[in-house]
């Protein structure tokens, strides 16, 4: 433990160790107090070695006075040790609770490795203050994790038991009634393969069958909201920002229904739509059509924001990146293209497969993309910059549908089998070696989605809808202001108004959503240049060195020139030294590029 | 097999009765709050727009004077009391909460040139064109009593300004010389002159209380130490300074309101370069007063507007004007730093909010939290061009607007000429003079 004794307990630790060796007989009332004194801190002493301060340059003695103490130590170790009684008061929880470095890292928003180009002293001091504030905020946010009420689910086999062998029926038997009720099958053989969609709170489920059957229900209470037959082929269904509006891609046009099943709009600008995606923070409904157009419809004002021609034939594979709202389209030539409504051309094109792309999915943190193609490959790509494949695996049938869960599980629908792979944590990619769970359905899979904030995977297939139990899939703790599964109607209405007020404009969609908070160096340099041109001189330039006049005849012209010369030479030497220092760095950098670059190179320090 | 499923008890998330508040569990995990920056940007944009929507700074107009208001004074002990002197020799005492005049005194014949309150707030001094200094009680005369000054000093020359010491029973007047008076005597303790021109205003330093500064019509600002018989030093500017005001938080900083449309903030230790030149007025600046925080000051100008400047910025953050307000002669920032008063030629005293969009009255805690959050967002995104444009936009009367355009053209022409002069003369013989140094003629010690 890393609690440090208060100045009150001035027992030197060396003496304590001696005492412990001797093992003096103790009275029963002494036991508690000596325990505290001997360790000088509650908890076993070996763990102290593992403690690491975030700021090691600070002396240890300052720990008690420091406002935020951070230790690298799992939370379980924080059990309070024995306490001293009233007389020899020692607080076992002196100071604020320690927080682990990894958790703080999760909340840290600034990248300290990035240097701001030559800031002035005033700006620099402001930046330093802002960074200190940011650090404080992240520590506070990390500390608030203590208040989170729920723990994520998990599934563990006995020694050597493969979790993939565990059947749904076993899980249903083992879990509590409320959870068991989340597993259900809707047997709808008449209206053909189903597509499904969960609302953003995870409370409602909409599904549409190929032969025109559209329904929406509160799947937790199994209360049906509406059920209609649109008498037309249904390609896809998607909830808009709330469960009150439902977009259905029908054979010819895009239709929007409310939760009573009443048709509100028929959008004829979007025809022959195959796939739908809703960008909840931008209020944009992205539609991919057979005619090869990607159309963005602003549902808050009802206008088409952009209609982009992908020039790649029929579009039937589409997904959104929840991190930056970029749309990923899969094409029949094996490429995946990334689109933003602000650009007529794709932001990036990634060659993923030989043969067409069958399915694409992006994880909620926006770091990984999973693709599957006609070549029966399932590949994982890194989306941070280089778009390099991280891992690949050949599947016997090839996956036709892919989905990521909130905690990073990857589900793939292959024929009538659903496989789920799990990784180490939220941000780590799922390992494709061993599936975490498998399940065989009564029909071919036609749609997959993990339910947000629940350990449930919804599968639409030719035999109806199946709700699978996948322990550890959902985020256990929701944020009440963001999406609250238990919200009332009034709360939803208020949320709707707030969400509309802070609707992000479509022009802001780009690969890096944090770019808006960074310094625009290019236009800064441009403005500087223009200013210097306008003024006729550069106001930021340092004036050339002018020697100060000296007393007692030492200010002769010769000496002035000499002093000036000296300074100039020194500057010149500095410049040469700097350029020499830079050269070998360049060569070193050039070397690794000769070998084949790997996606992991960036982690080499 | 060990299995745990996520299973929430709805009782923990739904309120028990309708009388309870809704439960809002929070999770600050950044992955649950995507698009943090763009959403904050939009919030900041909305907050900036709302700030401009709610910017209604004008509170009240106090009318009752029968001639232009020439001078204003605050009461150091009462926030609600304000004194004003007019060009017809009338002094009025106002109650700001009731927005009413509570007392009227015919103090002088001719102008009331200066007015100041004693530090204890029990009496005040006026000087007028009739060559007298008068001391008055702050409370009105009791029943049956005549409205009479406590003391009257008859001088030889006209006094143009007066200021009281911040701690002692000493006051200073200015006219042809700066006189320092003991309250008990009818003759000045000492008189100080430097040159032979009429001095327009004198101000005591609120921190280093022995220091005082004055400005005269021979374009100089003179600093005095009361403990010495002679002035300390003076700085000569291009044009005449109308008045000065000391920073109430930083002892050595003062700001001078100049006839050349600018204000100059000086550090009295280095008078050769002003700390900052504040440019935005389009006519002579007549009065200046600091906020009690010392971070901002307000200036009144002949161009019928008042402007608020941050001390460390050369451009104003705010401009107030109305259709009926004429040349503003005097301005004061109230001691709670929330309001600004200005007296103008057309006989009115106007009361403004110092922060144009601030909501007055007691705020609910959630309202307060929301305004704080919005303030922080505005700060964070203040350099984004769209937000900057909205927050900087002010409507100006046509006269000021066209004046600004005209002066911009003139300034541009002067700068071009200077550049050409540099270009066509021997290198190094003509130097670019910075804006700060340009207006300082000399410093004399």
What's the topology here?
The complex is a heterodimer of chains A (605) and B (445).
Chain A lengths: L12 H10 L7 H10 L61 H7 L13 H23 L10 E3 L11 H7 L2 H4 L3 E4 L6 E5 L5 E6 L3 E6 L4 E7 L4 E6 L5 E6 L2 E6 L4 E9 L1 E7 L4 E6 L3 E6 L4 E7 L7 E4 L6 E4 L4 E5 L8 E4 L5 E6 L5 E6 L3 E6 L6 E6 L6 E4 L5 E5 L2 E5 L15 E4 L4 E6 L5 E6 L2 E6 L19 H13 L19 H15 L21 H38 L11
Antiparallel strand pairs in A: 2-29, 3-4, 4-5, 5-6, 7-8, 8-9, 9-10, 11-12, 12-13, 13-14, 15-16, 16-17, 17-18, 19-20, 20-21, 21-22, 23-24, 24-25, 25-26, 27-28, 28-29
Chain B lengths: L1 E3 L31 H18 L4 E6 L5 E7 L2 E9 L3 E6 L4 E7 L5 E6 L5 E6 L3 E6 L13 E4 L6 E4 L5 E5 L3 E5 L5 E5 L6 E6 L6 E6 L3 E6 L5 E7 L3 E6 L6 E6 L3 E6 L8 E4 L5 E6 L5 E6 L4 E5 L7 E3 L7 E6 L5 E6 L3 E6 L11 H16 L4 H8 L5 H26 L11 H4 L1 E5 L1
Antiparallel strand pairs in B: 2-29, 3-4, 4-5, 5-6, 7-8, 8-9, 9-10, 11-12, 12-13, 13-14, 15-16, 16-17, 17-18, 18-30, 19-20, 20-21, 21-22, 23-24, 24-25, 25-26, 27-28, 28-29
Helix pairs in contact in B: 1-2, 1-3
CATH fold-level label of the domain at 61-353 in chain B? Methylamine Dehydrogenase, Chain H
Q: What is the number of helical segments of chain B per DSSP (H or I, 4+ residues)?
A: 5
Low-pLDDT sequence parts of chain A: 1-20, 31-69, 71-80
CATH secondary-structure class of the domain at 61-353 in chain B: Mainly Beta
Q: How widely separated are the two ends of chain A?
A: 31 Å
What percent of residues of chain A are in strands? 25-35%
CATH 4th-level superfamily of the domain at 61-353 in chain B? YVTN repeat-like/Quinoprotein amine dehydrogenase
Q: Please outline the major beta sheet of chain A.
A: 4 strands, antiparallel
Total number of strands of chain B:
30
Shape of chain B: globular
- Report the portion of residues of chain B in β strands: 35-45%
Mean pLDDT of chain B: 94
Count the beta strands of chain A. Answer: 29
Q: Rounded to an integer, what's the Rg of chain A over CA atoms?
A: 31 Å
């Amino acid at each position: 433990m890393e609690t440090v004794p208060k100045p009150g307990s001035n027992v030197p630790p060396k003496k304590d160790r001696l005492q412990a060796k001797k093992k003096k007989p103790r009275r029963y009332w002494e036991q508690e107090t000596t325990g505290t004194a001997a360790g000088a801190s509650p908890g076993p002493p070996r763990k102290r070695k593992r403690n690491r301060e975030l700021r090691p340059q600070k002396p240890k003695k300052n720990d008690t006075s420091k406002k935020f103490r951070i230790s690298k130590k799992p939370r379980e170790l924080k059990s309070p040790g024995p306490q001293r009684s009233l007389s020899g008061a020692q607080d076992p929880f002196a100071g604020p609770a320690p927080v682990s470095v990894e958790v703080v890292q999760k909340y840290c928003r600034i990248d300290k490795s990035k240097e701001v180009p030559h800031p002035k002293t005033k700006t620099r001091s402001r930046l330093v203050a802002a960074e200190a504030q940011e650090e404080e905020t992240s520590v506070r946010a990390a500390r608030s994790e203590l208040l989170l009420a729920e723990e994520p689910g998990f599934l563990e086999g006995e020694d050597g038991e493969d979790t993939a062998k565990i059947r749904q029926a076993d899980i249903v038997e083992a879990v509590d009634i409320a959870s068991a009720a989340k597993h259900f099958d809707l047997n709808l053989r008449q209206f053909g393969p189903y597509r499904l969609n969960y609302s953003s709170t995870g409370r409602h489920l909409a599904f549409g069958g190929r032969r025109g059957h559209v329904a929406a229900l509160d799947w937790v209470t199994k209360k049906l909201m509406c059920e209609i037959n649109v008498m037309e082929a249904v390609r896809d269904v998607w909830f808009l920002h709330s469960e009150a509006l439902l977009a259905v891609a029908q054979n010819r046009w895009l239709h929007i229904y409310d939760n009573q099943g009443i048709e509100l709009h028929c959008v004829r600008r979007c025809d022959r739509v195959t796939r739908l995606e809703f960008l909840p923070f931008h209020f944009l409904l992205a539609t991919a059509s057979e005619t090869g157009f990607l159309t963005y419809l602003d549902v808050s004002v009802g206008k088409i924001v952009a209609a982009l021609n992908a020039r790649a034939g029929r579009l039937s594979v589409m997904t959104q990146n929840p991190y930056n709202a970029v749309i990923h389209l899969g094409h029949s030539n094996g490429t995946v293209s990334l689109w933003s409504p602000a650009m007529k051309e794709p932001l990036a094109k990634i060659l993923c497969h030989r043969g067409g792309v069958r399915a694409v999915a992006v994880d909620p943190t926006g770091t990984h993309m999973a693709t599957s193609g006609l070549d029966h490959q399932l590949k994982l790509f890194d989306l941070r910059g280089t778009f390099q494949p991280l891992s690949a695996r050949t599947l016997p049938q090839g996956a036709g549908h892919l989905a990521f869960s909130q905690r990073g599980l990857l589900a793939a629908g292959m024929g009538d089998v659903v496989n789920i792979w799990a990784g180490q944590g939220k941000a780590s990619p799922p390992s494709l070696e061993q599936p975490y769970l498998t399940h065989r359905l009564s029909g071919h899979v036609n749609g997959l989605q993990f339910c947000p904030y629940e350990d449930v995977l919804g599968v639409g297939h030719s035999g109806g809808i199946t709700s699978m139990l996948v322990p550890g899939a959902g985020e256990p703790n929701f944020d009440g202001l963001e999406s609250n599964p238990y919200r009332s109607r009034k709360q939803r209405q208020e949320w709707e108004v707030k969400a509309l007020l802070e609707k992000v404009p479509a022009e802001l969609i780009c690969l890096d959503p944090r770019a808006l908070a960074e310094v625009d160096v290019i236009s800064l340099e441009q403005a500087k240049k223009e200013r210097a041109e306008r003024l006729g001189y550069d106001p930021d330039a340092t004036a050339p060195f002018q020697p100060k006049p000296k007393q007692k005849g030492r200010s002769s012209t010769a000496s002035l020139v000499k002093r000036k010369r000296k300074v100039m030479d020194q500057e010149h030497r500095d410049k040469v030294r700097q350029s020499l220092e830079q050269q070998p760095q360049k060569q070193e950098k050039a070397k690794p590029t000769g070998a084949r670059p790997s996606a992991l190179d960036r982690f080499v320090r | 097999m060990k299995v745990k499923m996520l299973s929430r008890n709805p009782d923990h998330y739904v309120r028990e009765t309708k009388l309870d508040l809704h439960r809002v569990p929070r999770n600050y995990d950044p992955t649950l709050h995507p698009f943090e920056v763009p959403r904050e940007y939009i919030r900041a944009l909305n907050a900036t727009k709302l700030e401009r929507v709610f910017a209604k700074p004008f509170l009240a107009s106090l009318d009752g004077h029968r001639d232009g208001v020439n001078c204003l004074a605050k009461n150091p002990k009462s926030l609600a009391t304000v004194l004003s002197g007019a060009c017809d020799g009338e002094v009025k005492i106002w109650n700001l909460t009731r927005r009413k005049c509570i007392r009227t005194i015919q103090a002088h014949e001719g102008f009331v040139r200066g007015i100041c309150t004693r530090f204890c707030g029990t009496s005040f001094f006026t000087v007028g064109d009739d060559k007298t200094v008068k001391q008055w009680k702050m409370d009105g005369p009791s029943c049956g009593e005549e409205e009479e000054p406590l003391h009257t000093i008859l001088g030889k020359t006209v006094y143009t300004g007066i200021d009281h010491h911040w701690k002692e029973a000493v006051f200073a007047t200015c006219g042809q010389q700066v006189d320092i008076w003991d309250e008990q005597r009818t003759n000045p303790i000492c008189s100080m002159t430097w040159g032979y021109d009429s001095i327009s205003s004198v101000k005591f330093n609120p921190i280093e209380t022995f220091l005082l500064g004055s400005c005269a019509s021979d374009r100089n600002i003179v600093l005095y130490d009361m403990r010495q018989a002679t002035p300390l030093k003076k700085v000569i500017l291009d044009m005449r300074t109308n008045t000065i005001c000391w920073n109430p938080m930083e002892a050595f900083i003062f700001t001078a309101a100049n006839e050349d449309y600018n204000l100059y903030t000086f550090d009295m230790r280095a008078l050769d370069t002003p700390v900052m030149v504040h440019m935005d007025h389009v006519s002579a600046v007549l009065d200046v007063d600091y906020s009690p925080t010392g971070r901002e000051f307000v200036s009144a100008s002949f161009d019928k507007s008042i402007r608020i400047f941050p001390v460390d910025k050369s451009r104003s953050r705010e401009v107030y004007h109305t259709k009926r307000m004429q040349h503003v002669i005097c301005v004061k920032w109230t001691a709670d730093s929330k309001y600004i008063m200005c007296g103008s030629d057309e006989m009115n005293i106007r009361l403004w909010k110092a922060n144009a969009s601030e909501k007055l009255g007691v705020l609910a805690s959630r309202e307060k939290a929301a305004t704080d959050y919005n303030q922080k967002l505005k700060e964070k995104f203040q350099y984004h061009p769209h937000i900057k444009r909205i927050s900087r936009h002010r409507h100006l009367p046509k006269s000021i607007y066209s004046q600004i355009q005209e002066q911009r053209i003139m300034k541009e022409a002067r700068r071009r000429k200077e550049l050409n002069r540099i270009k066509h003369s021997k290198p190094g013989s003509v130097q670019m003079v910075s804006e700060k140094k340009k207006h300082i003629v000399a410093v004399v010690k």
